[in-house]
Every structure is written in C-alpha cells, then in structure tokens.
Amino acid sequence: MGESTQLWEYHIQKDLDLMQYVSSVNIACGYHAGDTETMSRLCHEAHRLGKSIGAHPSFYDPEGFGRREMNLSPKELEENIINQLETLKSAASAQKARIRHVKPHGALYNMAALDPEIAEAICRAILTFDPTLILYGLAGSHLIRAGIEAGLQTGGEGFADRTYQEDGSLTPRSKAGALIEDVAHSLSQVMMMVQEGLMLTGTGLKIPIEVQTICIHSDGAHALEFASAIQEGLGTAGILIEAIKRI
Asked: Do residues 220 and 179 lie in contact, with contact meaning Cβ atoms separated by under 8 Å?
C-alpha cells in the first residue's frame, strides 16, 4: 500500500477500502514509492483497525517503481533497508503504532528469492533493526530459508494475483499471463494453496507450496474484487483470516 503519487486521494482511498478485507498491510517506505503523509495516514488507519503494519522496502528506484534489478554490495543493501525501516517506524510511532513485519518489494523480493547473498543481507538488516519482526517472503524461497537460518520468524507468502513457474518463482511481469485478471481464477488459486498446499503453474503442473500469508497487490486493477471474493471464500470454508502472530 501507499505506492501511488498520482491521483493520490483516489489511490489512498482504494488502500483504505482494502483494509476491511485484510489482516496485514505492507507500506511503501519511500524508495520506490510512498511519502511521509501517505505512510502516516495508512499507519493511523491500520492501527485504528487493528491491522498488522509491515514495511515494504525496495531498491532505491522511484523511476522504475522498484522493479529494476540493481547490483548493490551487501553492506549497501543492509543500510538501505534499515533506512527504510527507520522511516516507516517514525511514521508509525507518531500514530502510536509499530511495525510488526517486513516484506521486500519488487526486484528486491524476486532477487532475494533466488540469491542467498541478497536474502542473507536482508535478514542481517532486520536483525540489526529489530529481531522480533516477522519476515515475509516467497514460500519455499531462499529468503524464507535464510530467515529461518538467521533465527527470524518467517511467513511463507503466496500470491492471489500472480501466476507461477515450475520452479516455484513468479512469472515475470514481462511475460504474457504473469497477472491474474479473473476473480474466479484468483480465488481458485488461493483456495488450492491454503486447503491443498498445492500451486497450479502456468504449464498445468501442480507443485507443493506452504503458505502462511496471501498477497494482493493494492495497485492491481481488480484488487478490491479479489480481496472481497477471497475473504468470502475463506470464510465459507471456515478459514480465519488473521495476522501472523509472534511466536
């Protein structure tokens, strides 16, 4: 959330509307999107509604929306992530709220899923900043494994609005079929992940997946429809939606 600088009132209202359906929010920290006013308003509303607040750090890439791969040293990456966590912490504290989890954004997220060195740098940054924060990452990825090895609590993440490749990675946005545009497809994917522990890839192969949290991109064209349908579908199946609790 908090990722739009154009049509600000429209997009932040969409974020606020989405909060009724979710347990947790990932708030942009200024490097790919976001500003102090947006962070403060979202933290205020999330805290008021009892939603778990998460930091959504990225590479410094406002022009590319954080979706361009960058080559940083582990030290540079750690410093960048800590800076973003500090920024969101300040906004949250002003609203008498606190950060409870961290989910990297965009290219940083995808690179950390595949590259152990990047994954470990992210974990070191979190440990330095606050070792009680929960790390969200692509289920079954290097980022989740690095978090477990570092002693962080982790949440394996599945996606309601993206398709998967046979290696368990997300289909790149540059490829056809990367985005799920149909509500029924989104709901079916989520229910299969949650109830069966399986994921249907773009090639029709079913692969195992273990998820504790489901992501919906707030800037997606059908985000509200997806969120509403998933909340209803999970509820009908007797599955409670709640934030991951600190063990």
From this structure: yes
Nearest to 32 by CA among 105, 137, 132, 130: 105
Tokens of 246: 């600190």
| pLDDT digits 0-9 by tens, 56-87 | 999 999 999 999 999 999 999 999 999 999 99
pLDDT digits 0-9 by tens, 102-123:
999 999 999 999 999 999 999 9
**Residue whose structure tokens are 């609005």:** 161
Among the listed residues 81, 75, 16, 14, the one whose alpha carbon sits nearest the alpha carbon of residue 45: 16
Asked if 126 contacts 80 with a C-beta cutoff of 8 angstroms, the reply is no
Domains in the chain, start-ordered, CATH in brackets?
A: 8-163+211-236 (3.20.20.370)
Q: What is the dihedral of CA 78, 84, 88, 89, to 10 degrees?
A: 40
**Distance between CA atoms of residues 102 and 136, nearest Å:** 6
Which one, of 88, 87, 94, 99, lies nearest residue 24 by Cα? Answer: 99
3-state secondary structure 166-200: CCCCECCCCCCCCECCCHHHHHHHHHHHHHHCEEE
| 3-state helix/strand/coil string of 78-109 | HHHHHHHHHHHHHHHHHCCCCEEEECCCHHHH
Instruction: Name the residue type at position 222.
Output: H
The answer to whether the predicted template modeling score (pTM) of the entire model surpasses 0.90 is yes
User: Helical H runs in the chain?
Assistant: 8-18, 36-49, 74-94, 106-114, 116-129, 142-150, 183-191, 223-236
Q: Which helix (H) or strand (E) holds 26?
A: strand 24-28
Q: How many residues does this entry show for the chain?
A: 247
